[in-house]
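Before relying on records like the one below, remember that each one covers exactly one chain. Contacts with other chains, cofactors or solvent are not represented anywhere in the record.
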Amino acid sequence: MSSKKEDENHHDDSINRVSEKADEIQKKFAKQASLKALVGQAGLMVSMVKDYVTRRYREVPYWAISAVALALLYVLNPIDVLPDVILGVGYLDDATVVAFCLRLIEKELERYKLWKDGQPTEAEPTSTPPNGKVVDV
């Protein structure tokens, strides 16, 4: 039986792997018809994992970020309940897993999107000192 610490280490590995494979995951969503409807939300999920890994966003519960990582890794894995090579239906299980995960983490993803939308873009100044001069941080 595995300990809680071992489970967390395994999930941390999964979270890091999603961050490393982000481009590959997004390409898979973009090119498969059954996953295209989820491409925007999947992109947000990938972004949340990347921001979690880089410590920019840590307001998400560990169970939620773990669920996102596992769902995205399921999509990345070509060997699953319905192998991806089966034309027409190979990605339906992937879409189902992601849709279930989205339903599970809906509120957390909404909170993340609000946080992300409030972040300054790289072209925006991040602080204005009392003397009125704009300084990029």
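The mean pLDDT is 81.
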